[in-house]
Amino acid sequence: MSAQLQGKRVAFLATDGVEEVEYTEPRKAVEAAGGTAELISLKDGEIQAVNHMDKAGTYRVDRTVREADAADYDALVLPGGVANPDFLRADVDAVNFVRDFFTADKPVAAICHGPWTLIEAGVVNGRTLTSWPSLRTDLSNAGATWVDEQVFVDDRLVTSRKPDDLPAFCEALVERFAH
Fold this sequence. Notes:
three-stranded mixed sheet; Class_I_gatase-like; protease; Rossmann fold; peptidase activity; Protease; alpha/beta; seven-stranded mixed sheet
């Protein structure tokens, strides 16, 4: 990849239960494009990733969401996993952090169950997006239009359904974050 994201800082908001490849693959894509990735989480130390429901690797947290400020970043990635976004959407600091990216009109990418946090932040009404299929009703109830596509870009919001969609998701988020 080229240096499309040179000088850009990208926040990855995740906590315990994050689907490992939905964190590691987009992070690799951001870094390969010259961007700086930072892991923002609910707690200091490390988070426990999963491969489906089985424990996978652990990852060092760069800063807590309470310490983080959306103004310091150019874009945001919300990886999935079932537990990760459920924990995030229950945390007021995490929800406010996500909302601040939309208020500032910065690009955001979410995959799989990641849009649960977008729903809680109140930022999906009137948007079209995709996700893991079980979020379809939640997104519709929040005013979004759900589509079953590998990747969908709605203005500055990039969404994908599942780990199989990661190549298309990573390509789309790098392209969107570069602008």
